[in-house]
Amino acid sequence: MSKKPSTRTRVVVYPRPEILDPEGKAIADALRRNGFEKISEVRVGKSFEIVLEGVGADGATEMLEQMCERFLVNPVIEDFSIEMMTAATSQGETP
Amino acid sequence: MRCGVIVFPGSHGEHDVYHILKHVLAQEVLFLWHGDENLRDCELVVLPGGFSFGDFLRPGALAALSPIIKAVREHAADGGLVLGIGNGFQVLLEAGLLPGAMQRNHSLRFDCRDVYVQVEQADLPFTSEYTAGQLLRMPIAYARGNYVDSEEALDQLEEAGRVVFRYVEPPAGSPLPAGADAQSAPEQRSGAREMDEKTCGSGSARAIAGIANEAGNVLGIMPHPERCAEPLLGNVDGLALFASAVGAGEKHTEVTR
Asked: Do B108 and A20 lie within an 8 Å CB cutoff?
């Protein structure tokens, strides 16, 4: 019986710390005005859920790094992090 | 001169560029499709403004992965003329043909109005019909025209003379309101001709509006010269940019003949 691992991953992309994030700043200002005075910073990023078929967690990390470096992230203004949401699950199993 | 205007899904400036090149400057122009793999012998290639691929991922990011970009890259490496306007500039940045990146405007607004830019370099194929220091009035229309790069990279750009257009205050007597950014205090604006990232509205580093590659044959510009390039539009400040490119192309043809 062939087992095909399926890996659900998440890539999170944020503006780099030294890059001013005008959107995050505007949201922080608005939240502070509306009773959330304790906010010192908001940064707005984006996340990608990417499911890889036939790839285990190790291979997934390498593949996602390549995706980020070449496509998903603009290194001039953005940083990224990678999370494994479900480690390799076999076909037929419920995650 | 044979000119090509690349059409991406979501481009909207292609017909304006086509019109100026064909009907105002009497050049041969054709549309190139993003899925094409060659430039059909065009000497000048224009990446027009718009919202290629809906600005998904990042403006210009998906267009930069189009098949035709490989041909654009080769054309640029061979010294061929490449012009990116607005979103076309963003595509060139994402493709790595020009350095840096665009962030959301400091104002957080989609900024759509006339601005003034100063010609910083008048010896490039795209600017030879201008004079250095000349002020041009041009329309902008963008949400992400906030040019960023590291301080070192910006210094290198400046030293190499690759900052081609810079936002400046409207000249005295101009009908345009002084100070692009309403947030800047009037006393800071009055008399100040030069702008910085705080006063130019977009937040663009060192008020950069347009840059070139090292060889000068690839130009990216955020304002829209094609929207101010014939008398009917009430402003012809952008025409010399296209006329310069056409002139450069003709010279090149003479040399290679």
From this structure: no
Complex ipTM value: 0.77
Residues recorded for chain B: 257
Q: DSSP code of B179?
A: -
Give how far A77 is from chain B: nearest CA, Å. Answer: 7
B81 near B249, Cβ under 8 Å? yes
Cβ B95 vs Cβ B64: under 8 Å: yes
pLDDT tens digits, one per residue of B202-236: 889 999 999 999 999 999 999 999 999 999 999 99
Q: How confident is the model at residue A18 (pLDDT cuts 50, 70, 90)?
A: confident
The length of chain A in residues reads 95
Residue B101, min C-alpha distance to chain A (Å): 6
Q: Do B57 and A72 touch (CB under 8 A)?
A: yes
Residues B167-208 have pLDDT tens digits of: 998 887 777 765 544 444 433 433 335 677 766 778 899 999
pLDDT of A41 > 90? The answer is: yes
Give the burial string for B188-199 (b: 16+ CB within 10 Å, else e). ebeeeeebebeb
All structural domains of chain B, each given as residue ranges with its CATH number in brackets, are 2-147+158-256 (3.40.50.880)
Chain A positions contacting chain B at CB under 8 Å are 15, 19-20, 22-23, 26, 71-72, 74, 76-77
Domains located in chain A, CATH noted: 6-19+45-89 (3.30.1280.10)
**DSSP code for B131:** -
Interval B99-158: pLDDT, tens: 999 998 988 889 999 999 999 999 999 999 999 999 999 999 999 999 999 999 999 999
Residue percentage of chain A with pLDDT more than 90: 65
Q: Between chain A and chain B, how many beta carbons pairs sit less than 8 Å apart? A: 33
Q: Give CA–CA dist B231/B229, Å, rounded.
A: 7
